Amino acid sequence: MTLSAELRGLLPLRPVGLLTRPVDVLTARRLTASLRVGGVAYGDPTGARRTFSDLLVFRLDGDGAVPVVVKHPRSSRAVTSLTRECDAVRCLTGDERLGAWRRLLPVVDQCRLEGPLPLVVERALPGVEGDRLLRYCPPLARRVAVSALGTIGEVHRATGRTEDVTARVGDWVDPQLAALTAEVGWCRRGRGADGMRVLRHRLVRALEGRRLLVAWTHGDFHPGNVLLTGPQGTLCGVIDWAGALPDGPAALDCHTFVLTLRHQRGGRQLGRIVADAVRRGSLLPADQRLLKEAGALASDAEGEIAMTLLTWLWHVAGNVTKSARYGRSRRWIGENVVPVLVEVAADETSARGLRGRAVGASGR
């Protein structure tokens, strides 16, 4: 069966908000009115937009009021995601080990996730998202990457410790595999199921026995989740902590940033980038240099590719968990899931063939 036949019937992942903008503006106004019970009268909401994570997001400004960002969940998944984010931000804000770094965190004024108009209200941080900045000023890419990696590295060093991660590998791999299997039908049969089995075996084999830095891990640290200001792209905020873990693999944040930056600069989907890395047996030299400067590059090729695959797994599993739209999208699955699993399975088959020939040669 061809890939197109296997994926037939799934929907492409289309931009959100184009046809729903009038309804979204009305909803934003209702949400704004519900906030006036606190005595602050805001002006009209601006920039109302739906995200791929099933959120309606907009900004509010008012005379004498602190500008805020309002997030309205449009599904039960989005409610769960916002609950996790509020919990993580509260824990990080109270973590004395982070000291002055905490100024980069969003300040949650309200976390009201029950009732007919659930919402989260955060004080608006200065700056613009890194992905937007880099669209207009691509030459800043390396400077932004170094700044972002150094900033998240401060969190890792302040909250982390180096340890044997054998006992943690299952927690880092199995929930993400389960989410991907549950949401993407292609992963439950045929080549998809084969690739999932090989992927788990490869990750467990490569990560068990390693000593890695375990720390507070953002989990979705990409250019769109850092805020920057000024002509030099000074980092002034880190947002969207819904996927954060207090005991995650710290190097994953650095790999996520470098790989998603590569996607943004080259226009290729993350799945294609990771599949190419598996085929080569390494990341591109420029990406390796960034990771090495950040202290997040493994000393061997197996560890480098294992962390790259783990990063990919967290990324795609995070997407399908946030919104059912990803698991229904033929285009997204075909570009981001299929290439990696097919390449992992092919790489394992090739490796078995090489081992078999080596055994045969040694017996002659």
TL;DR?
With 364 residues, the protein is α+β, with helices and mostly antiparallel strands. Helices cover 52% and strands 16% of the residues. The longest helix has 25 residues, at 338-362.
What does this structure look like?
Helices cover 52% and strands 16% of the residues. It is built from 14 helices and eleven strands. The chain has helices at residues 3-6, 21-35, 76-93, 130-136, 141-159, 169-183, 190-207, 251-266, 270-280, 285-293, 301-322, 324-327, 330-336, 338-362, and strands at residues 46-50, 55-62, 65-73, 108-112, 119-123, 128-129, 161-164, 211-217, 226-229, 234-238, 245-249. Strand 9 (226-229) and strand 10 form a beta hairpin. The longest helix is centred in the last third of the chain and has 25 residues, at 338-362. It starts with a helix and ends with a helix. Residues 353-359 have low confidence and may be disordered.
What are the SSEs and their pairings?
Layout: H1 3-6, H2 21-35, E1 46-50, E2 55-62, E3 65-73, H3 76-93, E4 108-112, E5 119-123, E6 128-129, H4 130-136, H5 141-159, E7 161-164, H6 169-183, H7 190-207, E8 211-217, E9 226-229, E10 234-238, E11 245-249, H8 251-266, H9 270-280, H10 285-293, H11 301-322, H12 324-327, H13 330-336, H14 338-362
User: Roughly how many Å is the radius of gyration?
Assistant: 22 Å
Question: What summary fits the major beta sheet?
Answer: 5 strands, antiparallel
Number of helices: 14
Tell me the helix content: 40-55%
Structural category is: alpha+beta
Looking at how many chains there are and whether they match, the oligomeric state comes to single chain
What's the total count of β strands?
Answer: 11
What's the overall geometry? globular
Range of strand content: 15-25%
